[in-house]
Specification:
elongated, 3 domains
Length: about 425
């Protein structure tokens, strides 16, 4: 499909506008990083504890934050997950706030929740229990031991009943939280004896700990170094490959444009206050490959046109190459952009940073292919041609001077 026919845009004449725009956008990101003291690393890189919570009602953010601060946990980060009606919260604690004790953060958060909701007792929270634990409790109680059932039959019955109980608890509108164990009477097979057995083993709390992530400081530092090495080695490998397949100048231009894209993407992450997590690093590495791929398409067309029109100036040749590949660029980049935009809008909070990085990266990567990479190659090749022309002219002048000297000597003789 060819979207544009006989497109004739003079891209190279606007290179200084592109360079100015790139410099200003890059500086804005760098200034944001400097003001904020560097990138805001996620739990994967900085170390600490991250707990995902689900509440029956709207969580009291300010009161929870005050309780955590009162326990000497520094400045915890409380982030709403999903829609407000989902009543989900993500609590993050730095490793320094827990004195480098891996499980101290989770324990402090659970203690703060118990204090805020006046929870007493040592029983497990029923809203956090899985089907296997419920089946074990039911199998050990006399609730199912009726009619001379064998141990195998009791185990089978308790497993099936536990699965139905968990399915009932996790279905809408409860969404994983029930107000009381008595609410389970609507489940098939749940009798008063089953309710009594569950009440003896569990208590119901108005919240549930969904997920806990704990990363030590050494692991976080190692992951930061590995992420940096992966990005730099990826750029180096592409430089070597493109220099081998094309020329060194093409490889340098592609790496320069890709580095430009990564810098701007990280700057936008800082400006919009996104964390640098493992998923964001995955997005940056994806961006590296995608940006180079788009650049290579233009480079390949430039190389073909150079072979066909060796005497034509490089600037109009590069413009023609960019215009000839513009339909492909818009189709490929446009469809990819729509995909990652859908991830950003509908993928949820877990994928938000990943999708945002790719949304910015695809736009900047497509832009840099014709605004950074192509002008760099043309400027360098023009410089080489001019330098080579001057060297040739100087050589001719030397040869001419030598001939004139010889002619003068012959005349004197």
């Amino acid at each position: 499909m060819e979207l544009f026919k006989n497109l004739q845009i003079d891209w190279l004449s606007k290179k200084w506008i592109f360079v100015t725009g790139s410099v200003l956008i890059s500086l804005a990101g760098i200034v944001s990083l400097v003001i904020k003291g560097g990138p805001r690393y996620g739990i994967d890189f900085r170390g600490g504890t991250q707990v995902s919570l689900k509440f029956k009602d709207a969580p009291p953010l300010n009161r929870l934050r005050d309780v955590l601060v009162a326990q000497g946990l520094g400045e915890p980060t409380l982030q709403q997950l999903g829609e407000v009606s989902d009543n989900e919260l993500l609590v993050s604690l730095d490793m320094q706030a827990t004195d480098n004790q891996l499980d101290a953060g989770r324990q402090a958060i659970v203690k703060a929740l118990q204090q805020e909701f006046n929870v007493t007792g040592s029983k497990s929270n029923f809203n956090e229990i899985g089907a296997n634990s419920i089946a074990q409790v039911l199998a050990q109680s006399p609730a199912l031991a009726v009619g001379g059932a064998t141990p195998e039959q009791i185990t089978e019955q308790s497993t099936g009943l536990a699965q139905r109980i968990v399915a009932f608890r996790d279905a809408a509108p409860r969404n994983g939280l029930i107000a009381a164990i008595g609410d389970l009477r609507g489940v098939e097979g749940v009798s008063d004896a089953v309710i009594q057995a569950l009440e003896q083993g569990y208590q119901v709390e108005p919240y549930a700990v969904r997920n806990v992530e704990i990363v030590g400081p050494k692991v976080g530092a190692a992951l930061r170094m590995q992420a940096l090495n992966a990005t730099l080695l990826g750029l180096l490998a592409m430089l070597v490959y493109i220099a081998f397949r094309f020329e060194l100048v093409y490889g340098v231009a592609a790496v320069l444009a890709t580095f430009h894209d990564v810098i701007i993407a990280i700057g936008f992450l800082s400006i919009f206050d996104y964390e640098i997590s493992l998923t964001v690093i995955a997005a940056l590495l994806t961006l590296v490959g995608y940006s180079v791929n788009d650049t290579i398409v233009i480079f390949d067309r430039i190389r073909e046109n150079i072979r066909l029109n060796r005497r034509e100036p490089l600037a109009p040749m590069a413009n023609r190459s960019i215009n000839q590949t513009m339909s492909r660029t818009i189709l490929a980049s446009g469809l990819t952009f729509l995909s990652v935009l859908s991830l950003y809008l509908f993928g949820g909070d877990v994928l938000r940073g990943f999708a945002f990085t790719l949304v910015v990266g695809i736009l900047v990567g497509t832009y840099s292919s014709f605004s950074v990479a192509a002008p760099f190659v043309v400027s360098w090749l023009d410089y080489v041609r001019v330098r080579g022309g001057r060297s040739g002219a100087a050589s001719e002048r030397v040869k001419g001077a030598g001939k004139r000297s010889k002619m003068s000597a012959d005349a004197r003789a």
